[in-house]
Amino acid sequence: MEQLWGNQTMVSEFLLAAISPTPQSQAVLFVVFLLVYLSTLVGNLAIMVTVNADPYLRTPMYFLLSNLSFLDLCFSTVTAPKMLMDFLSERRSISYDACMTQLFFLHFVGAAEMFLLTVMAYDRYVAICKPLHYSSIMNRCLCSCLVLACWTGGFIHSTVQTILTMQLPYCGPNHVDNFFCDVPPVIKLACTDTYVMELLTVSNSGLISTSCFIILVTSYTTILVKIRSPEGRRKALSTCASHLTVVTLIFGPCIFIYARPFSIFSVDKQVSVVYNIITPMLSPLVYTLRNKEVKSAMKTSLHRQGHLPDYCTWQDSLGRR
């Protein structure tokens, strides 16, 4: 459908691409991705509830982990429900307003998560390299400010991306070459030269993802270099292994999609599935399976009545570290 705007005919809806071309595989994928999405909800909610219910987990590391789980839950919800609905529909359409809304929240939550992962790397650096000053540096006020800064940075980034995308005229093709609305496939549909827009997007999204990834790798390298003993280095690597796994799963697809010219590759859909659907489910699995404290707290919570402790336990838990 199209609508008149000024002297131009503007597209009022977009048609999304199918992940699989055959109806049989669509039905199978619907069941698979429904289970993945439900697992994402349950896993991330379990971490959030566990961290808030157990006083021994009232530390900066788990406070940040709880926020990461919330972001993963939100990030998956931006695209997964619409994708599941489209599996059951013959016409996979999305209105212009809904498309721009999806694009905004995708970059809002995604950028906030990248910034938060960088903050988590800083938390691990302080905990391992400056353990005696950890409680004074990573206090509750600083952690709250850092999380707020992550959300603010994500909002600013997404607002810029969305405004730039909405400024383009869409008066021709309306077939988005992906199963959700994102900047690269959407601006390819604009009825104008998008070279400058592509450069701005690469310098925005591409620069953020690449810079955060370099900072993360540098921080982990610094941690390993500063620890002299082989045993200490082994423990540090074990502590950061889960974080490194999540970082690779998140930043790899982001750099591939956003830090290059907007040439559409056939593999982009598969990369998007991993980044948008699979990774939010793997994050809680990686952190819980490799973290004895979280697993122990989850087991304990099953044998007692759940309650949320007062925030004053924050400093007490820091002392226990």
Which characteristics define this entry?
321 residues; mainly alpha; 3-stranded mixed beta sheet; 11 helices; 72% helix
Structural summary, described in words:
This protein is mostly helical and 321 residues long. It contains 11 helices and 5 strands. The protein has helices at 23-53, 60-87, 96-129, 134-137, 140-166, 183-187, 195-226, 230-258, 268-289, 292-301, 313-320, and strands at 2-5, 8-11, 13-16, 93-95, 175-176. It has a 3-stranded mixed beta sheet with strand order 4-3-5. A two-stranded antiparallel ribbon has the order 1-2. Strand 1 (2-5) and strand 2 (8-11) form a beta hairpin. Helix 1 (23-53) packs antiparallel against helix 2, helix 3 runs antiparallel to helix 5 (140-166) and helix 7 packs antiparallel against helix 8 (230-258). The longest helix is centred in the middle third of the chain and has 34 residues, at 96-129. It is globular, with a radius of gyration of 21 Å. The termini are far apart. Residues 1-7 and 305-321 have low confidence and may be disordered.
